[in-house]
Design a protein that fits this description.
The protein is of the alpha/beta class. Helix content is about 45%, strand content about 20%. The protein has a six-stranded parallel β-sheet with strand order 2-1-3-4-5-6, sandwiched between helices. Strand 5 (about 120-125), helix 5 and strand 6 (about 150-155) form a beta-alpha-beta unit. The longest helix is centred in the last third of the chain and has 20 residues, at about 170-190. The protein is globular, with a radius of gyration of 15 Å.
């Protein structure tokens, strides 16, 4: 599969490259665009401030420009936290999207959003301070109404960005489970299952 993997508000850190390498080792082609143009941050607050300074429209424009050369092949959009929200926006607008892999984050849906059985897999901490249960329930129902085929995998007791080994949120056991399930999801998409 051709995967477009978007970073979190921490920026394009080593954990994103490690995740991309892991997916490449499983036989996938992975692009990791840098929406922050080289900036990385030590705290989520600094990253969110930078994200807000750039602005949603500019960040989505950067993501679209990074994805455009590859979109004819039918992309799987993926992302960590904020990157998941970017991936979701792009996948919901790309009729050739093959799938959506969300790691630690979702986004609101545009009114009238519609997809044709888009496979979606979400991996999320339980509870997650950025994705409360009420929000996730509403998101799930709206995604289903939009036509997505949604799976949600929750990880009790894990921190928000629990797949990043450099952060306090890291949970090695939960992270391994994420990658096992996510690689299976991508393999199923590749085989057309």
């Amino acid at each position: 599969m051709n995967i477009m993997l978007f970073h979190s508000t921490y920026g394009l850190r080593p954990a994103v490259h490690a995740a991309a390498d892991r997916l490449r080792a499983a036989g996938h082609q992975v692009q990791v665009p840098d929406l922050f143009e080289g900036r990385t941050f030590g705290t989520v607050e600094e990253g969110m401030a930078h994200r807000d300074e750039i602005g949603r429209d500019e960040l989505l424009k950067r993501a679209v420009l990074a994805s455009a050369p590859h979109s004819d092949q039918g992309l799987v959009y993926a992302g960590f936290s904020f990157g998941g929200s970017v991936a979701q926006h792009l996948a919901m607008a790309d009729e050739k999207a093959r799938g959506l892999l969300l790691l630690h984050g979702t986004a609101d849906l545009e009114d009238g959003a519609s997809v044709d059985d888009l496979p979606v897999q979400l991996h999320i901490a339980d509870p997650d301070p950025f994705e409360p249960h009420d929000w996730l329930t509403a998101w799930y129902l709206r995604m289903q109404r939009a036509g997505a085929d949604v799976e949600v995998h929750s990880y009790p007791g894990a921190g928000h960005l629990f797949t990043d080994p450099e952060l306090d949120d890291y949970d090695a056991e939960a992270a391994e489970q994420v990658w096992k399930v996510a690689v299976g999801f991508l393999d199923d998409l590749r085989s057309g299952a």
